[in-house]
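Re: the 357-residue chain
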Amino acid sequence: MSEVRPTEAASDLDAIAAEAWALELPSSRRRGLRCHEAAVQVERLLTRFARGRGALDVAIGEGLLALGIGDRALRLGYCGIGDYARERLGIAASTAQKMARLARELRGRPLLREAVWTGEVTARQAETVLPVARGEDEASWVARARSGETVRALKAAVKTATGAEPEQDEAWERISVPVSPEARPVVDKALELAGKILGATAPKWQRIEAICNEYLGAHGQPDDAAGAGVLYGPVEDGLEPLMEYLEQQTAQWAFLEHTDPVLAPVAGAAETDPLLLDAELRRLAGLRAQWDDAFGHLAMLMRTLGLWRDAGFASFGHYCSERLGMTERTVEQRIALERRLRVLPALRQAMREGRIS
């Protein structure tokens, strides 16, 4: 299995990070000008950062899986890999557990594991075909993922093969709540107050979440009848035909620049010494933080300017899944952090220096 040496990764990172930070949000009068060119430029850099970050996630997952064996995490003073990752690596416990879970599943699928480690198959593609890539069927499913078949198409194929919907680990849901003209000023005021608490850059969904939590804290869970007038629906439900259409019309976005696979660095999974595993995981987490810095900036540009539309995708989630190999929620969370960091430069500097995570 190939290894990316840290010096090579750092050198590559410095070169493309400088180009990434040279891109900024345009003024309002310039928005809409040369959108296609901007989309291609931002997309080229963003996919490169996503591949680099994804390769590190694969390696970190392998290291966390090794650390979770026996009492290794406990010997470092942590109750488990989730606790360790949060406190030691600055990675959310749920994210760390997901990384380790994928690493565990891949160990029983050697062909798929090799494809993920060499960067030929994204983690998103791998997670999609996990239920069917077993035994004699593994090779054919890995070949389909390697050939560039979209995540949407792979999900449809898995559904046909198993007769069940693929597992949605981070499903989004859209709700529609009728608001009368009389109540609208109250809602606007509540959103404004939530923004003062969360910060001026907090997106609307975070403000609504804060309002709902405040209500539940004071009034408790409402009965089912209280939500009778609320409409619910999966976010991607109506987009499936459009996704398929765009994939066909663009020949799977053939006009976008091809991004070379990025090899996952070896994370020392063979190590049994918790101290050595800890040192390696901290090194990888440090590299991940460096990749993540510019990734958040580029993702914010792609989202804020709506460049995913110009790149030929049905939704931002569609773009994240197909081009970045990541879930929409993961990218949205990083964008939310980037918005905060833009107005708190001292916080960004502290994160870059490793003083906080």
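Residues 6-169+239-352 form one domain.
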